[in-house]
Amino acid sequence: MTPTNIIADLHSHSTASDGTLLPAEVVTRAAGNNVDILALTDHDTTAGLNEAYRSAKENNIRLIPGIELSATWQGKLLHIIGLNIDPEYPPLKQGIKMLKAMREERAIEIGLRLTKAGYHNTYENARRLAGEGNITRTHFARYLIETDAAKDFTDVFKRFLVRGKPGYYRVDWSSMEDAVSWITGAGGIAIVAHPLRYKLTASWLNRVLTAFKDTGGEGMEVVCGRNTPDDNTRSALFARKHGLLASQGSDFHEPGKWVELGKLAQLPDGMVPVWQHWIQH
Questions:
Q1: Is the CB of residue 30 less than 8 Å from the CB of residue 263?
Q2: Domain 96-161 is of which CATH architecture?
């Protein structure tokens, strides 16, 4: 098995955060799609990993323990994926605890703001949909769609949850430096998730990637979820420029509405895949 014929999906979500499938179901679905290497990367939590490990053993699939950390750098929101982490690393566990509290605070505030705008009980129902998992804006979106307040996720975010809209609430998450240090301290590799989704100018993205590498980051998603072929080509240029390893992931959340697990374009030529480290072990 070589890096080029591996089917790797290194970005996925379960009910531990804002996915709709249990961790075991995500793994089973990936195995059914012939994924060789899967990373479960729930938002600011590793709670689904033990269940995912058991399912990976049953399905004969390589599971990479992961997480998607919320971070802020110079006022810009970033998501930093940690791959091949030790979830028991104490500073990471403490960081997760802090981020969970910040998520709960944001969710309560979003609910209060939506109530003022005439949309009642949104926090309670978002919490219901989240169950024991970390609460996210996606849970608010699902409830607003469920009650016909919006037609789809794009409509929800555009009308309710972005800056200047009634449910927007700014959070200064962990610093990028802290997020990367938690990942690397846990023995993992830090990856910038979906870098083009932040809608940064090329100048800003170059600044982010320079700072990210300077703090110990090693890679970026080159092929991800809803990228177009042009997006993949553009991401590859940034990865080459900054000497970053290339990752790929569907950012799968639920069947039917997201790119399917493992159904991704190949990395552009000349990329060094992050999974090269794991296929030899």
A1: no
A2: Orthogonal Bundle (1.10)
